[in-house]
């Protein structure tokens, strides 16, 4: 049988291990919830069109990759600069510029339907995440250029292959007027 000092030592050790287990369990649960909360907060900022232009199968997957540090915050094409800034702010990082140095001068990409080839099957209309395609069944469909995000989902589902992605020529109507995002290299703003 154990003597009193040995029994006291065993009981104190068991109590210490129990308390350590409870603390570690609490920390693991709170860290998991914080990770989920971060991904959820990031997903709320994303436009939710599930276009996969970021390289992930949808906005939730992109948000989870952002939360775990496995993706850059500037990959959401439909969200543009506004969403990129919000994502960077939530993550507490600066906006990466490796892909976006000349983005302000890059023309937008939109879908174009060749009406002479379109049979009006409506598959593109059902697959467009932003409802940028209009038309009646068995009549050629048209793209609403102002709404098109250039995701290419309509290309993938078109049985007639009458849709292509084209770059818009920059005009005053479709130019990105966020001029504060231009950085002039070699110039100094301080005097």
Automatic annotation (TrEMBL):
Residues 109-139, 140-168 form the 4Fe-4S ferredoxin-type domain. It comes from the Bacteria. The keyword Repressor does not apply. [4Fe-4S] cluster 2 binds at residues 118, 121, 124, 158. Keywords: 4Fe-4S, Electron transport, Iron, Iron-sulfur, Membrane, Metal-binding, Repeat, Translocase, Transmembrane, Transmembrane helix, Transport. [4Fe-4S] cluster 1 binds at residues 51, 54, 59, 76. PROSITE patterns: 4FE4S, 4FE4S_FER_1, 4FE4S_FER_2. GO terms for biological process: electron transport chain. Its cofactor is [4Fe-4S] cluster. Pfam families: Fer4_21 (PF14697), FeS (PF04060). SUPFAM superfamilies: 4Fe-4S ferredoxins. GO terms for molecular function: 4 iron, 4 sulfur cluster binding; electron transfer activity; metal ion binding. [4Fe-4S] cluster 3 binds at residues 128, 148, 151, 154. Gene3D superfamilies: 3.30.70.20, Electron transport complex subunit B, putative Fe-S cluster. GO terms for cellular component: plasma membrane. The chain crosses the membrane at residues 6-28. Residues 34-93 form the 4Fe-4S domain. Binds 3 [4Fe-4S] clusters. This is RnfABCDGE type electron transport complex subunit B. It comes from Candidatus Anaerobiospirillum pullicola. The lineage of its organism: Bacteria, Pseudomonadati, Pseudomonadota, Gammaproteobacteria, Aeromonadales.
């Amino acid at each position: 049988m154990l003597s009193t000092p040995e029994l006291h030592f065993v009981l104190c050790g068991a109590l210490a291990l129990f308390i350590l287990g409870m603390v570690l369990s609490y920390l693991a649960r709170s860290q998991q919830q914080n990770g989920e909360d971060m991904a959820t907060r990031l997903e709320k900022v994303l436009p939710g069109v599930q276009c996969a232009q970021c390289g992930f199968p949808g906005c939730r997957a992109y948000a989870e990759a952002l939360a775990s540090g496995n993706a850059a915050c500037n990959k959401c094409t439909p969200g543009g600069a506004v969403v990129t800034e919000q994502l960077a702010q939530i993550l507490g990082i600066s906006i990466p510029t490796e892909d976006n140095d000349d983005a302000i001068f890059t023309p937008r990409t939109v879908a174009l339907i060749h009406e002479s080839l379109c049979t009006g099957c409506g598959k593109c209309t059902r697959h467009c995440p932003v409802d940028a395609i209009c038309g009646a069944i068995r009549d050629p469909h048209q793209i609403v250029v102002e709404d098109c995000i250039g995701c290419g989902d309509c290309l993938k589902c078109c049985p007639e292959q009458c849709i292509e992605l084209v770059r818009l020529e920059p005009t005053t109507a479709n130019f990105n007027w966020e001029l504060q995002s231009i950085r002039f290299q070699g110039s100094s703003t301080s005097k």
